[in-house]
Amino acid sequence: MLNGTVYAFGVLLTLLTIGYATVLAFGLPRVGIYRQSEMYVNVFLGLGLATYYVDRARTAYQVADKTAADDIGSQGLRGRLRTAYARINPAIIIGLAIASLVSTAYVHINFNRLFEDAHLAGYTSVDILVGTVLIVLAIDATRRAFGWVIAAVAIGSVLYAHWLVIGLIFLASNAVPVVDVPGVFRHTGMTWTEIARDGAISINGVYDSTLMGIGSTWVAIFIMFAGIAKAFGLMEFVLDIGRELGSSLRTGVVQVAVISSMIMGSITGSAAANTATTGSFTIPMLQEQGIRDDFAASIEAVASAGGQMLPPVMGVAAFLMADLLGVSYVQVIQAGVIPAALFYLSVCVAVHFAVLKFGWTSRELSSFDWRLLLTGLHFAIPLFVLLYTLIYLRYTPLSAGLYTILTIFGVMIVKNFYDAGIGVDTAQSTGRQTLDGVSRGGLEMAPLVGVLAAMGLIVELLEGTGLTQGIATAIIGLGGGLLIVVLVLAMITSILFGLGMPTPAAYILVVVLVAPGVIQMGVPELTTHMFVFYFAMLSAITPPVAISVAIGSRIAGTSFMKACLQALRIGAPGFVVPFAFVANNSLIYWSTETIVAFPLVLLGTIGLVVATVGFDGAHDLSYPIRASYVAASFAAMFGSLGHVGIQLTGAGLVAAGLGYANLVVGYNAEARRGAEPSAAE
Fold first, then answer.
1. pTM (two decimals)
2. Which one of 423, 443, 462 terminates a domain?
3. Among 43, 187, 423, 434, which is least packed by CB within 10 angstroms?
4. What is the DSSP letter of 639?
5. Torsions phi, psi of 265, nearest 5?
6. Strand partners of residue 620
C-alpha cells in the first residue's frame, strides 16, 4: 500500500507543476490553487514535503524489517532500543507527512487573510503555531535529505535571530553573565513570534519568492524532466555510449566518465547526488581499466562537482542567478560558458596526462560502433526543443521545460508504437512507462523542497538581523581596500559556507553573505555571482567535508584523504580560474577582447595542470620545471592586469613547453614504430 502511495504522490507533484506551467504557457484562466503564484507555492511546499516524507517512510519500513531481523535474539539494551526506534520511526515520518499537508492546508484556507490583512490586523496563536510547524518541517526534511550541515545552519540562524533575547533571559535569571556581542553580529533580537511570522506564516521565509518561487517552477520542471528522461532510458543510453567510447579510446573510459558526469551534473542540483548516481557506474568502469582507486574516486568527484557550472542548467543555479540579478537567463548561461569550458578542458587534460603518466591506457582497442548512436537518436529531439525554446525563442525556463516534457512524451509514444506496432499492449506499456517517468520526476524533486524552504528561512532571518550587511562590511574592512585580499577572503568564506551543501543552497547562502562585499569593490554583479558560485561549487571537493569525494571514495573503497589529495590535484586550476575571469572580465561579458583573452587564459590553465600533475605528455617534470610552468601560467592568466605583453609571453612559454613535449612523443613514437606503445606515449 505504501508503495502505491509513494507512486501516487510522485505523480501528483509532477502533474501539479506541469499544470501550473500549462496555465502560464498557454494563458489559461488562473483559478483554484493556481490563482496566485504564492498560493501555488504553498500547495507545492505541502505536497513536496509530504511526497518526500512518504518516500522516506517506505525506506524506514525496510530498515525496520532489516533491523528487527539483525537483532533477533539480542537481549542487550542497545539492541532492544535500536529495534524499538526502527519500528516507531516510520510512524513518526508518516506523522510528519500528515503535518505537512495539514499545515499548508491551513495556510491555503486562510490565505487571503494571511497574505493581505494579518500583517495589519495581527496573527492568531494558531497562525504562529502553524508557522513554527512549517519551520520545523523545513529543517527536519533538510536534515533527513542532506544531513546536518544545512539543518545546523538553519537552526543556528533561528538561534542567532533570537540571540539577544536569550541573553536577556540569562541576565534576568543571573544564570550567566551576558557577553557583549561584537559589532558585526549585534542586532536587536527577535521573539519566537516574530521568527514564526517572518520565517513562514507571513508567506515569507520558507515561502521565499526567489528560492521557493523559482524552485517550485523553473528548478522543479527541469528536475522532473531529468527524472522522466531517466525513466525513458536516457541514463542507460549515456552509459552505453560511455562503454563503447571507452573501448575505442586510448585513455579508455576516463574521459567518458568526465563527460557523462558533466552532463548529468548540469541538470541535478547536488554534486553529491551526481557522484552517487553516475559514480556507481563510472567508478567500477575506471577500476576495471586499472586506474588506481583513489584516482577513480577523485576523477568522478571533480567531474560531478564541475557539472554544476555547466550551461544550460548549471545545477539549477542558473535560474536562481538570473532571478536574483534581474537579468535574462540567456545572459547567465552565456556568462557561464567560458568558465565551464576552462574548468572542464583543464580537468580533461589533467586526467589524460595522469592516465599517460601511470600507464593506465587501454591496449585492446576496437573501432567505435556508430550504430549505437541510432538507438538514442530520439533523445536528441527533446534536447533540441529545450535549447531552441530557451536560447532562440527565449521562453522562460518553465515554459521551455514544459515543451520539452511534452516533446519527450510524444517522441516516446511514437517510438514505442514504431518499434512494437500499434496495439493495446503497446499502449499499456507506453502508458505505464510514462506514469513511471512522471512519478520518478516528482520523487527526484521532493528532497529539494525542504532544502529550498530551509534556505529561504536562513536568508530571511540573516537579512532581518542585518548580518549580511555586516559581513560585507567586515570583508571590505579586513581586505584593507585591496581587491585581491577581498577576493581571497570571499573565496575562503564561499568555500566554508558551501561545505556539505547542494550547489543551489550553497550559492544562495554565499551570494547573500559574501557577494555584497565584492560588488562594493567595483567588481560587476554578474562576475561576482559567478565568482562566489564557482567556489561554492568547489566546496564539494574541498576538505575537510568534500562531500563528493567522500561518496566517491566510499564507492571506490579507498581512503578519503588520498582521494581528496588527488581531487585537489586534478581540480587545482579550478581554484585559480575565478580570479582569472575577474582579471579578464571579457570572459564573462563577451566582447572582441574575449577572442584573445580566452585562448591565453586556457593556455594558462593547461600550464597549471602540467605543474600539478607533474607530467607534460612526454616525461615527468622536476620541481624547478613545474615552478616555471606555474610562473608562465600565472603570467598568461593575469598579465592583463599589467601589460598584455606579459600575458602573451606567459602563454607563449606554456605553448612552447607543450609543443616540445609533443615533439618528444612524436619522435619516440617514430623511433619505436611497430612496437607496442609505452605508457609515456
1. 0.78
2. 462
3. 423
4. G
5. -65, -30
6. 615
